[in-house]
Amino acid sequence: MFPWEGQGRDAPRDIIDQLFPDVPRPSAPGLETVSLNASVLLGPMRSGVVNEVLVKSKPSHNYPCRLRFEAERAVDLSPAEKRQLLMLSRQTQVAGGVWTEPSGTYVIVCGVEENVRIFVRRARTILGIKPGSEAPWKGIVMQGFDFN
User: Fold this and answer.
1) Partners of 147 in the beta sheet?
2) Which of 29, 38, 61, 142 is deepest in the core (most CB within 10 A)?
3) Using 50, 70 and 90 to split pLDDT, how confident is the model at 86?
4) DSSP letter at 7?
5) pLDDT per position as a tens digit, 94-113
6) What is the mean pLDDT of residues 107-122?
7) Rounded Cα–Cα distance for residues 27 and 69 (Å)
8) 25-81: pLDDT as tens digits
9) Which residues contact 106 (CB under 8 A, 6 or more apart)?
């Protein structure tokens, strides 16, 4: 997959194609950048708190509106604010998260455009989103809403 020299290969794709040659691949736009954070799901199973986890189906729209915002300050969210944002993300059916890097604090919001706008409008005061900091997000979309 990752050779010392030359172009890498998608070995898992080649193996799956060999095992299932007649199965068509989905080709919806944006699908290749939608992912599931399995470590978050498997954590409770590994700790023995639960025996199984039911995963919600991936939305068929593949998160067409994907935006990144910059926060005005380093966001140190309280547990209550995190719960509030998680509830809001579920209500508006958006994915994304909040994370801090040396260059600043960023908010990623992905979903249907109307829902993304509703989430941002309601969460603006909690997150301190800088006006005019909206930019397209071209990275991977992790289902759910997370904080680092």
Assistant:
1) 98
2) 142
3) very high
4) -
5) 999 988 888 888 999 999 99
6) 94
7) 29
8) 655 555 566 776 777 677 788 888 888 888 777 788 889 999 999 987 766 788 998
9) 68, 69, 70, 71, 98, 99, 100
Phi, psi angles (nearest 5°) of residue 81: -65, -40
C-alpha to C-alpha distance for 142 and 101, rounded to whole angstroms: 18
State the sign of the Cα–Cα–Cα–Cα dihedral 122, 128, 133, 135.
Answer: negative
Q: What are phi and psi of 106, to 5 degrees?
A: -125, 150
Lowest mean pLDDT: which of 58-62, 81-85, 136-140?
Answer: 58-62
State the CB neighbour count (10 A cutoff) for residue 44.
13
65-70 and 145-147 strand pairing: unpaired
Q: Is 137 exposed, middle or buried (0-12, 13-18, 19+ CB in 10 A)?
A: buried
